[in-house]
Every structure is written in structure tokens, then in C-alpha cells.
Amino acid sequence: MVRESLIEEAGVSVLFPKWFNAFPTVLAIGGACALALAVGGVWYYFTPKYWSVGYEPVQPGGGFSHQIHVSKLGLDCRYCHTKVEESPEANIPNVSTCYGCHADGRLKAINEKAGHKEKTQFIREAYASNASIEWRRVHKVPDYVRNFPHNIHLNAGVSCYSCHGQVNNMPVVHQVESLSMSWCLDCHRNTAPHLVDRSKVTQLDWVAAELKKRREQGDAGLAAGRKLHEDKHLNPPEDCAACHY
Ligand code: HEC
Ligand code: HEC
Ligand code: HEC
Ligand code: HEC
Ligand code: HEC
User: Fold this and answer.
1) CA 60 from chain center: how many Å?
2) Does residue 39 form part of some domain?
3) How far apart are CA 90 and CA 223, in angstroms?
4) Is residue 61 part of a domain?
5) Among 38, 125, 184, 222, which is least packed, fewest CB within 10 Å?
């Protein structure tokens, strides 16, 4: 209203038809929509599903803490991810693995400790109804990438640490590395900073400390990795067909 009268007073209403007064409003609404779309787009593409570093989905039931089971209780990765050294895929354990410890009457003092009984109830329920726990997947390469081979990487002396970070200290698993093509290739072209003795690949704290120590030693530190590469005659592929169909 104020604007209209001002314009009329200035005598410009002849030049600008009446509907034109709505123009700034239309512009403002249009602008707001465009901004919302832009924000929405950025939000959509940069949420963890698309920009995966840090992706940490909420897990079902009382969840699963690697920090408790690996760092506190001392279980090795292979206690649960049993096939990780023999097959391309790292399997997720089924309910019976959990039930082995969390069945009624077992580990009594612990399972009946305040809070734990409730937190682990989903395990006994799934076991009783023969259902599986629907864990939400964290790490995933796109479908146009060939079956990623865990076994080959572990046998070459690449630790879980190099690709998944210190999972042993995570109460909830999240993604640490980008898993992008350049990330794969950076290591394939220069393995020395990442290789450890094959027997240590699941000792994540040890690996983290060892690789840090070697980095600090500079060139002398890299020699250990280079030697492992040469002794094993490693040959990480860079040709497209190794990773794509
Ligand atoms: C007692 C069983 C158990 C042990 C031991 C264990 N894990 Fe797991 N792990 C699981 C379960 C269950 C999941 C699925 C739930 C989740 O993601 O937290 C999982 C998920 C993961 C994931 C994420 C998978 C995804 O969806 O992308 C990684 C990576 C992983 N584990 C690595 C390790 C490493 C490395 C170790 C050894 C340091 C280890 N785990 C030891 C049970 C175990
Ligand atoms: C080797 C025995 C063992 C196995 C196998 C095991 N747990 Fe546990 N779990 C324990 C013990 C012991 C505790 C209590 C640890 C503590 O609080 O110090 C515990 C605690 C828990 C808790 C409650 C603590 C918390 O806040 O997270 C949950 C939930 C749990 N476990 C889930 C699972 C799931 C899911 C699996 C299977 C993937 C599993 N556990 C396999 C021994 C085991
Ligand atoms: C060289 C990198 C690399 C190493 C080493 C590695 N992983 Fe993985 N891991 C990946 C990638 C990449 C994926 C996603 C694979 C896919 O989408 O097919 C993955 C996926 C997983 C999953 C999810 C599997 C699923 O089906 O949900 C688990 C569990 C896992 N890794 C555990 C481990 C454990 C345990 C170790 C060490 C013993 C390990 N990984 C070592 C790169 C690695
Ligand atoms: C931290 C180091 C590292 C990372 C990261 C890594 N690789 Fe590798 N990769 C290796 C090494 C070392 C070898 C060589 C193994 C050998 O020669 O036995 C290898 C071998 C391979 C092979 C060859 C398997 C065969 O049949 O010989 C494939 C395929 C492969 N990697 C895929 C991938 C993909 C896909 C990614 C990323 C998602 C990836 N790698 C990330 C270190 C790595
Ligand atoms: C060591 C494994 C590896 C090799 C070798 C490799 N790629 Fe990839 N490539 C990947 C992975 C993993 C992705 C998925 C990256 C992501 O999720 O962002 C990818 C993604 C792509 C994409 C999708 C766009 C992008 O950059 O994300 C194209 C196109 C592609 N690769 C082409 C090629 C071509 C051409 C070659 C040969 C010169 C090649 N790749 C070699 C692992 C590899």
C-alpha cells in the first residue's frame, strides 16, 4: 500500500501498469523459492549418502559398539567378520553370533546389569523369531564398481585401519575415507605408506601407531613399506577393467 501510494504520488503509475506493483513481491517469492531449491539441492547431494565421509546411520535395537566388543573385550575382527580373509566380501555376523554371549542366563552379571538387559533384548527377540537384525550398511561402492576384494587387500598387508579407520574405538561405525576412485588409485600407485606385516592387519591401534611412526621418520620410514611391497611382488591394478565391468 505504502509503495503504491508513493508510486502514484511520484506520477509513475502511467509508466508502470498497476499489476507491476506486485512485481517486487513476485520477485521476492521467486527468489525465496530459488534459494530454497539451491539449499535443498546442496543438502540432498551433500548429505552423507552422497558425500560419504562421516556417514553414520542409526543402527537397529540397542546397536552394536565396536569400542566395547573389540577394544574393551578384546575380540578380534575375524571373530565376527569370519570370511574377510578368504572372500571378497566382509560378512556381517548373524544373530547367533551375538546370542552366543547375549542369551538369557549367559554372562549373567553383565547382561543383567542395569541398562544392558534392555539394550540387548533385540538380540534375544530376533533369535527367538528366527529373524535377522537389519543392520544399516555404512560403506558401499557404486554398483558399476566390480566386487571389491577384501581377501586380496588383507593378504597384501593392507590393514582394515587404512580403509575404515580405527573402528575398534567407534561406539557407532562411521565412514572415514571417501572410497572414491582417486582414493583407490592413490594407494595403488604408492602402497609403501600403507603396508604392514600381514599378521597385524586386524591390530588397528598397533597399525595406527606404526604408520604414524613411519611417517615421522620420512624416507627411512617408507623403506619398511617398500620392502613389504617388493618381497610380496605386489601389483595393484590401475587399468579400468580391474575395477569396472
Ligand atoms: C562381536 C562382533 C564383531 C566384531 C568382533 C567386529 N565387528 Fe565389525 N561389525 C559387527 C556388526 C554386527 C556390524 C554391523 C553393525 C554396525 O555397522 O555397527 C559391524 C560393522 C562393521 C563395519 C561397517 C560395515 C558397513 O556397513 O559398512 C566395519 C567397517 C567393521 N565392522 C569393521 C570391523 C573391524 C575392523 C573389526 C576389528 C577391529 C570388527 N569390525 C570387529 C560385528 C563385529
Ligand atoms: C564374546 C561375547 C560377546 C559377543 C559375541 C557379543 N557380545 Fe555384546 N556384550 C558382551 C559383553 C561382555 C558386554 C558388556 C560389556 C561391558 O559393558 O563392559 C556386551 C554388551 C553389549 C551391549 C550393551 C552395551 C552397549 O551399550 O552397547 C549391546 C547392545 C551388545 N553387547 C550387542 C551385541 C551384538 C549386537 C552382538 C552381535 C553382533 C554382540 N553384542 C556380541 C559380550 C558379547
Ligand atoms: C583396501 C580397503 C579396505 C580394507 C583393507 C578393508 N576394507 Fe572393508 N570395505 C572396503 C570397501 C571399499 C567396502 C565397500 C565394499 C562394497 O561396497 O562392495 C568395505 C566394506 C566392508 C564391510 C561391509 C560389508 C557388508 O556387506 O555390509 C565390512 C563389515 C568391512 N568392510 C569390514 C572390514 C574388516 C573387518 C577389515 C579388516 C579385517 C576390512 N574391512 C578391510 C574397503 C576395505
Ligand atoms: C591402502 C591401500 C589400498 C587402497 C585404499 C585400495 N587398494 Fe586395491 N590393492 C592394494 C594393494 C596393495 C593391492 C595389490 C594386491 C596384490 O598384488 O596381491 C590391491 C589390489 C587390488 C585389486 C586387484 C585384485 C586382484 O585380483 O589382483 C583390485 C581389483 C583392487 N585392489 C580394487 C580396489 C578398489 C576398488 C579400491 C577402492 C574402493 C581399492 N582397491 C583401494 C591396496 C589398496
Ligand atoms: C582401483 C580401482 C579403480 C580403477 C583401476 C579405475 N576405477 Fe573408476 N572408479 C573406481 C571407484 C571405486 C569409483 C566410484 C567412486 C565414487 O564412489 O565416487 C569409480 C568411478 C568411476 C567413474 C564415475 C565417475 C567418478 O569419477 O566418480 C568413472 C567414469 C570411472 N570410474 C572410469 C574409470 C576409467 C576410465 C578407468 C581407467 C582409466 C578407471 N575408472 C579405473 C575404481 C576404479
Assistant:
1) 17
2) yes
3) 30
4) no
5) 38
Residue with CA nearest ligand 5 atom 36:
240
Pocket (CB within 6 angstroms of ligand 2): 62-65, 68-69, 72-73, 75, 93, 97-98, 100-102, 107, 110, 116, 119-120, 123
The tens digit of pLDDT for each residue in 183-208 reads 999 999 999 999 999 999 999 999 99
Total count of domains within the chain = 1
What's the pLDDT at 118? 87
pLDDT score for 137: 94
182-191 LR contacts (CB < 8 Å, sep 24+): 184/243, 185/238, 187/158, 187/162, 187/236, 188/236, 188/237, 188/238, 189/236, 189/238, 191/156, 191/158, 191/225, 191/229, 191/234, 191/236
Q: Is residue 200 part of a domain?
A: no
Q: Can you give the pLDDT at residue 138? A: 94
Residue (of 73, 70, 72, 48) closest to 58 by Cα position: 48
**What nine digits make up the cell of 46?**
551433500
Q: Evaluate whether residue 201 is within a structural domain.
A: no
Residue 32: which domain range?
2-46
- 245 vs 12, residue with greater confidence: 245
Distance between CA atoms of residues 62 and 113, nearest Å: 14
CB 70 within 8 A of CB 173: no
Q: Which of 52, 148, 152 to mutate to test the pocket of ligand 4 (most atoms within 8 A of CB)?
A: 152
Which residue do the cell numbers 540397542 mark? 62
CB within 8 A of 236, min separation 6: which ones? 156, 187, 188, 189, 191
Mutate to test the pocket of ligand 3, among 164, 174, 211 (most ligand atoms within 8 A of CB): 164
